[in-house]
What we know:
alpha+beta, two-stranded antiparallel sheet
Amino acid sequence: MRRRNAFIVAVNCAQAGGTCFCVSMQTGPKVESGFDLALTELLSGNVHEFLVEVGSAAGAEILRQIPCRPATDMHRTAADRVVAQTAKQMGRKLETDGIKQLLQGNPNHPRWDDVAERCLTCGNCTMVCPTCFCTTVEDHSDLAGQSAERVRKWDSCFTMDFSYIHGGSVRKTTRSRYRQWMTHKLASWIDQFGTSGCVGCGRCITWCPVGIDITEEVAAIRATDAAPKGDEYGGA
Protein backbone atom coordinates (compact mmCIF):
# COMPACT_ATOMS: atom_id res chain seq x y z
CA MET A 1 0.00 0.00 0.00
CA ARG A 2 2.78 2.44 0.89
CA ARG A 3 4.56 1.68 -2.38
CA ARG A 4 1.38 2.14 -4.42
CA ASN A 5 0.67 5.47 -2.74
CA ALA A 6 4.23 6.77 -3.12
CA PHE A 7 5.11 9.30 -5.81
CA ILE A 8 8.66 8.64 -6.96
CA VAL A 9 10.88 11.25 -8.55
CA ALA A 10 14.10 9.62 -9.77
CA VAL A 11 17.26 11.46 -10.75
CA ASN A 12 19.65 10.03 -13.32
CA CYS A 13 23.20 10.20 -11.98
CA ALA A 14 25.47 12.80 -13.54
CA GLN A 15 28.58 12.20 -11.44
CA ALA A 16 29.86 8.81 -10.31
CA GLY A 17 31.97 8.38 -7.21
CA GLY A 18 35.20 6.51 -6.75
CA THR A 19 33.44 3.58 -5.09
CA CYS A 20 30.56 3.28 -7.58
CA PHE A 21 30.04 0.20 -9.75
CA CYS A 22 26.34 0.36 -10.70
CA VAL A 23 27.20 -0.33 -14.36
CA SER A 24 28.50 -3.76 -13.31
CA MET A 25 25.19 -4.48 -11.58
CA GLN A 26 23.09 -3.08 -14.48
CA THR A 27 21.30 -0.74 -12.09
CA GLY A 28 22.50 2.64 -13.33
CA PRO A 29 23.43 5.35 -13.90
CA LYS A 30 20.08 5.75 -15.69
CA VAL A 31 16.85 4.68 -14.04
CA GLU A 32 14.82 2.45 -16.34
CA SER A 33 11.55 1.81 -14.51
CA GLY A 34 9.58 2.20 -11.29
CA PHE A 35 9.37 5.99 -11.32
CA ASP A 36 6.65 8.58 -11.85
CA LEU A 37 9.07 11.25 -13.08
CA ALA A 38 12.76 10.90 -13.91
CA LEU A 39 15.04 13.93 -14.12
CA THR A 40 18.34 14.42 -15.93
CA GLU A 41 20.24 17.57 -15.00
CA LEU A 42 21.58 19.49 -18.01
CA LEU A 43 24.28 22.10 -17.50
CA SER A 44 25.65 24.15 -20.39
CA GLY A 45 27.38 27.44 -19.63
CA ASN A 46 24.91 29.56 -17.69
CA VAL A 47 21.96 27.38 -18.73
CA HIS A 48 20.62 25.02 -16.06
CA GLU A 49 17.76 22.75 -17.17
CA PHE A 50 16.19 19.38 -16.42
CA LEU A 51 14.98 16.85 -18.94
CA VAL A 52 11.90 15.18 -17.44
CA GLU A 53 10.78 11.69 -18.42
CA VAL A 54 7.24 10.64 -17.53
CA GLY A 55 6.87 7.13 -16.15
CA SER A 56 3.22 7.02 -15.06
CA ALA A 57 -0.16 8.67 -15.38
CA ALA A 58 0.40 10.31 -11.98
CA GLY A 59 3.68 11.71 -13.25
CA ALA A 60 2.01 13.10 -16.36
CA GLU A 61 -0.67 14.75 -14.24
CA ILE A 62 1.90 16.45 -12.02
CA LEU A 63 3.91 17.62 -15.02
CA ARG A 64 0.82 19.26 -16.52
CA GLN A 65 0.69 21.48 -13.43
CA ILE A 66 4.32 22.57 -13.71
CA PRO A 67 5.58 25.22 -16.15
CA CYS A 68 7.60 23.33 -18.77
CA ARG A 69 8.18 23.07 -22.49
CA PRO A 70 8.55 20.09 -24.84
CA ALA A 71 12.01 18.54 -24.97
CA THR A 72 13.97 18.83 -28.20
CA ASP A 73 16.30 16.31 -29.83
CA MET A 74 19.14 18.46 -28.52
CA HIS A 75 17.89 17.99 -24.96
CA ARG A 76 17.59 14.24 -25.40
CA THR A 77 21.06 13.98 -26.90
CA ALA A 78 22.50 16.01 -24.05
CA ALA A 79 20.77 13.78 -21.49
CA ASP A 80 22.10 10.63 -23.18
CA ARG A 81 25.56 12.18 -23.11
CA VAL A 82 25.31 12.83 -19.37
CA VAL A 83 24.40 9.21 -18.65
CA ALA A 84 27.08 7.84 -20.98
CA GLN A 85 29.74 10.03 -19.39
CA THR A 86 28.72 8.91 -15.90
CA ALA A 87 28.90 5.26 -16.95
CA LYS A 88 32.55 5.82 -17.87
CA GLN A 89 33.36 7.26 -14.43
CA MET A 90 32.82 4.08 -12.41
CA GLY A 91 35.49 3.80 -9.74
CA ARG A 92 35.01 0.06 -9.32
CA LYS A 93 34.02 -2.98 -11.35
CA LEU A 94 32.45 -6.24 -10.23
CA GLU A 95 32.52 -9.31 -12.46
CA THR A 96 29.09 -10.88 -12.01
CA ASP A 97 29.25 -13.84 -14.41
CA GLY A 98 28.73 -17.00 -12.38
CA ILE A 99 28.93 -15.09 -9.11
CA LYS A 100 26.17 -17.12 -7.46
CA GLN A 101 27.97 -20.42 -8.07
CA LEU A 102 31.31 -18.83 -7.18
CA LEU A 103 30.29 -17.70 -3.70
CA GLN A 104 27.99 -20.56 -2.82
CA GLY A 105 30.67 -23.01 -3.93
CA ASN A 106 33.43 -21.51 -1.75
CA PRO A 107 32.19 -21.53 1.87
CA ASN A 108 35.65 -22.54 3.12
CA HIS A 109 37.75 -20.27 0.95
CA PRO A 110 40.76 -18.83 2.86
CA ARG A 111 39.75 -15.32 1.80
CA TRP A 112 37.00 -15.39 4.43
CA ASP A 113 39.71 -15.67 7.09
CA ASP A 114 41.64 -12.83 5.51
CA VAL A 115 38.70 -10.44 5.54
CA ALA A 116 37.75 -11.53 9.08
CA GLU A 117 41.12 -10.28 10.32
CA ARG A 118 40.21 -6.79 9.11
CA CYS A 119 36.45 -6.65 9.66
CA LEU A 120 35.28 -4.96 12.88
CA THR A 121 31.72 -6.35 12.55
CA CYS A 122 30.53 -2.78 13.18
CA GLY A 123 27.58 -3.19 10.81
CA ASN A 124 28.26 0.05 8.91
CA CYS A 125 27.93 -1.72 5.57
CA THR A 126 24.47 -3.03 6.43
CA MET A 127 23.29 0.31 7.84
CA VAL A 128 24.11 2.24 4.64
CA CYS A 129 23.10 -0.45 2.15
CA PRO A 130 19.87 0.51 0.34
CA THR A 131 18.71 -3.11 0.13
CA CYS A 132 19.61 -4.59 3.54
CA PHE A 133 16.44 -5.32 5.47
CA CYS A 134 17.43 -7.30 8.57
CA THR A 135 15.31 -6.54 11.61
CA THR A 136 14.84 -7.73 15.17
CA VAL A 137 11.82 -7.72 17.47
CA GLU A 138 11.66 -6.34 21.00
CA ASP A 139 8.88 -6.66 23.58
CA HIS A 140 8.21 -3.80 25.99
CA SER A 141 5.79 -3.53 28.89
CA ASP A 142 4.91 -0.62 31.17
CA LEU A 143 5.85 -0.53 34.86
CA ALA A 144 2.26 -1.12 35.93
CA GLY A 145 2.01 -4.27 33.87
CA GLN A 146 -1.12 -2.99 32.14
CA SER A 147 0.13 -2.85 28.56
CA ALA A 148 2.75 -4.37 26.32
CA GLU A 149 3.92 -3.83 22.80
CA ARG A 150 6.08 -5.63 20.28
CA VAL A 151 8.35 -3.37 18.23
CA ARG A 152 10.28 -4.21 15.09
CA LYS A 153 13.49 -2.27 14.54
CA TRP A 154 16.50 -2.33 12.23
CA ASP A 155 19.25 -4.80 12.99
CA SER A 156 22.39 -6.11 11.32
CA CYS A 157 23.46 -9.66 10.50
CA PHE A 158 26.90 -8.65 11.78
CA THR A 159 25.75 -8.59 15.42
CA MET A 160 26.16 -11.65 17.63
CA ASP A 161 22.56 -11.48 18.80
CA PHE A 162 21.09 -11.49 15.30
CA SER A 163 21.50 -15.24 14.85
CA TYR A 164 20.99 -16.07 18.53
CA ILE A 165 18.83 -19.05 19.34
CA HIS A 166 18.59 -21.21 22.48
CA GLY A 167 22.12 -22.30 23.22
CA GLY A 168 23.94 -19.43 21.55
CA SER A 169 24.52 -17.64 18.25
CA VAL A 170 24.56 -19.57 14.99
CA ARG A 171 27.31 -17.36 13.56
CA LYS A 172 29.83 -16.85 16.33
CA THR A 173 32.78 -15.75 14.22
CA THR A 174 33.50 -12.65 12.15
CA ARG A 175 34.34 -14.98 9.29
CA SER A 176 30.91 -16.57 9.27
CA ARG A 177 29.06 -13.29 9.63
CA TYR A 178 30.89 -11.54 6.79
CA ARG A 179 30.51 -14.63 4.60
CA GLN A 180 26.79 -14.72 5.34
CA TRP A 181 26.36 -11.06 4.41
CA MET A 182 28.29 -11.12 1.15
CA THR A 183 27.02 -14.52 0.02
CA HIS A 184 23.43 -13.51 0.73
CA LYS A 185 23.81 -10.15 -0.96
CA LEU A 186 25.44 -11.43 -4.14
CA ALA A 187 24.29 -15.05 -4.40
CA SER A 188 21.40 -16.42 -2.34
CA TRP A 189 19.44 -13.20 -2.94
CA ILE A 190 19.23 -14.45 -6.54
CA ASP A 191 17.57 -17.64 -5.25
CA GLN A 192 15.07 -15.56 -3.26
CA PHE A 193 14.26 -12.70 -5.61
CA GLY A 194 15.71 -13.57 -9.01
CA THR A 195 18.22 -10.71 -8.87
CA SER A 196 21.32 -9.61 -6.99
CA GLY A 197 20.88 -7.75 -3.73
CA CYS A 198 23.68 -5.35 -4.65
CA VAL A 199 22.97 -2.20 -6.70
CA GLY A 200 26.59 -1.12 -6.99
CA CYS A 201 26.25 2.09 -5.01
CA GLY A 202 29.54 1.49 -3.20
CA ARG A 203 28.26 2.77 0.13
CA CYS A 204 29.54 -0.29 1.99
CA ILE A 205 33.04 0.49 0.67
CA THR A 206 32.80 4.20 1.49
CA TRP A 207 31.60 3.70 5.06
CA CYS A 208 33.79 0.75 6.04
CA PRO A 209 36.25 2.08 8.67
CA VAL A 210 38.93 -0.41 7.60
CA GLY A 211 38.41 -0.08 3.84
CA ILE A 212 37.00 -3.51 3.02
CA ASP A 213 35.96 -3.51 -0.64
CA ILE A 214 33.26 -5.99 -1.70
CA THR A 215 34.48 -5.91 -5.31
CA GLU A 216 38.01 -6.72 -4.18
CA GLU A 217 36.83 -9.62 -2.04
CA VAL A 218 34.88 -11.19 -4.90
CA ALA A 219 37.83 -10.74 -7.25
CA ALA A 220 40.15 -12.44 -4.75
CA ILE A 221 37.86 -15.46 -4.43
CA ARG A 222 37.41 -15.63 -8.19
CA ALA A 223 41.18 -15.55 -8.74
CA THR A 224 41.65 -18.69 -6.64
CA ASP A 225 38.30 -20.42 -7.15
CA ALA A 226 38.64 -23.98 -5.95
CA ALA A 227 34.97 -24.97 -5.91
CA PRO A 228 33.94 -28.07 -7.87
CA LYS A 229 31.68 -27.10 -10.73
CA GLY A 230 28.06 -27.37 -9.73
CA ASP A 231 28.89 -27.48 -6.01
CA GLU A 232 26.73 -24.94 -4.19
CA TYR A 233 26.58 -23.75 -0.63
CA GLY A 234 23.28 -23.19 1.12
CA GLY A 235 24.26 -23.07 4.78
CA ALA A 236 24.66 -20.29 7.32
